[in-house]
Design brief:
It contains eight helices and eight strands, in the order E-H-E-H-E-H-E-H-E-H-E-H-E-H-E-H. The protein is an alpha/beta fold and 188 residues long.
Length: 188
């Protein structure tokens, strides 16, 4: 597997033509992998559009923020664990599909403890900086706290939250594998 330095995270994917075009642009801007997620559409629509993304971008490393069996059936390489405690059904489905590259989101020491028993492959640690989508709801970690938590994670860790490609050097100096970004790739 090639080293992934940048992970894009989709905004809403309900407009199929628009999201396919935005993925093309994101690839041109240096995106190595894509986490497909949309918390506003139903599962049927998520599956339908995810299949089209897989078909249009057969070489792109795709991570589904959804159910393990769906990720495997569509041919995605990865799966993103739910932010909340995964259900027993989700865990059982993952055990059957454990060859999927598993990512999780970590926001602080408490979420690191919560996921310590899961054998995830990479973590998205956030928010590092202020981000428009979160406003003032969440206090950013900053680079010092990012570095401290990244050392504890002991897996490839991606800086998320207010990131731009210009943050790559700083992220790597602070223990990141790379960057995970929605705004940089999809709000342009």
């Amino acid at each position: 597997m090639k080293i992934i330095e940048t992970i894009g995270i989709t905004p809403s994917i309900k407009n199929e033509k628009k999201i396919l075009k935005k993925i093309e642009i994101a690839l041109d801007r240096g995106m190595d992998a894509l986490q497909v997620r949309d918390k506003e559409i139903n599962q049927k629509k998520l599956v339908e559009i995810s299949k089209k993304i897989r078909k249009e971008f057969p070489k792109l490393f795709l991570i589904l923020n959804g159910k393990p069996q769906i990720a495997a059936d569509i041919g995605f390489e990865g799966l993103h664990m739910p932010d909340l405690e995964p259900s027993k059904g989700w865990i059982e489905s993952y055990r059957v599909n454990s060859d999927l590259f598993l990512t999780t989101s970590i926001h602080n020491t408490n979420s690191l403890i919560k996921f310590k028993n899961f054998k995830f492959d990479a973590a998205l640690l956030s928010p590092v900086k202020n981000t428009p989508s979160k406003g003032n709801q969440v206090k950013p970690l900053g680079w010092k706290e990012f570095k401290r938590l990244a050392k504890k994670i002991k897996k490839p860790t991606y800086a998320l939250g207010g990131m731009s490609i210009s943050d790559m050097e700083e992220a790597k100096k602070n223990g990141a594998q790379g960057l995970a970004m929605m705004g940089y790739f999809f709000n342009g």
